[in-house]
Amino acid sequence: MQISIKTGPEIEGMRTAGRLAASVLEMIGDHVKPGVSTGEIDRICHAFIVDELGCIPAPLNYRGSPGQPPFPRSICTSVNQVVCHGIPSDTKKLKKGDLLNIDVTVIKDGWHGDTSKMFLVGGGSSVLGERLSRVTQECLYKGIAEVRPGATLGDIGHAIQVHAEKERFSVVKEFCGHGIGRAFHEAPQVLHYGRRGEGVTLQEGMTFTIEPMINAGKARIRMLADHWTVVTHDSKPSAQWEHTLLVTADGVEVLTRRAEEALPV
Ligand code: MF3
Ligand code: CO
Ligand code: CO
Questions:
Q1: In a mutational test of the pocket of ligand 1, which residue from 42, 60, 62 has the highest number of ligand atoms less than 8 Å from its CB?
Q2: 202/181 Cα distance (integer angstroms)
Q3: Residue 103 beta carbon below 6 angstroms from any ligand 1 atom
Q4: What are the residue ranges of helices labelled H in the chain?
Q5: What is the value of pTM for the model shown?
Q6: Domains of the chain
Q7: Helix or strand holding residue 254 (H, E)
Q8: What is the pLDDT of residues 170-188, one digit of tens each?
């Protein structure tokens, strides 16, 4: 598949979808607390996305690879050693100190906005958990800071990998960021590791995500029997942050930026 370049009204469509996706993460923060189940978080997000925003939750019934069952919920909730694609459940109650990633993708007028953030449940996370979450967000921001016409995808991956490994963490290699637009997952694949100068050259009008998954221990992962939930092989925690980006004439626009964020770009 080739990389689509967005112009004019297409960019406006992506801006709107991105802003709405961000608003879901802004809304849900007050509901994330000990005792609440990830199933309840999913229901609150679903109702907000459909009834308040007039959007479609892209994960619901999403078909990944052939042989994978359709994803059964409207968001992904990934706790502690879950790397990504955790399935919300009424029996999974959050505890003080849990590291939770909420990943939201909405569709508005056919355009997708995809973003995720970490929550330190009840404020009681370990020193390691807090550092893992902070460093992973820094990895995202260092990746974003590379984005401009003429830079390469390798520049992004390199910046992320160097920062994670300097902190003695590891980068998950099996999952990556992706082009995004009328489709949830488009070309190109955006690896979170790599070498400076390698890979696709960025061009004004490209839209893609950066969504590093960083493990406190080893990079190795395994898939649970539900065919969706990805966990660390060593059961140590993992973190992820994600934004949807637009390459502009002179740099980058963060389409899923939240009000709370003071971005370095
Ligand atoms: N939102 C995820 C991403 O960042 C994809 C989730 S697919 C789902 O690409 F089916 F698990 F929702
Ligand atoms: Co994504
Ligand atoms: Co996502």
A1: 62
A2: 16
A3: yes
A4: 8-28, 38-47, 127-145, 153-166
A5: 0.98
A6: 8-254 (3.90.230.10)
A7: strand 252-254
A8: 999 999 999 999 999 999 9
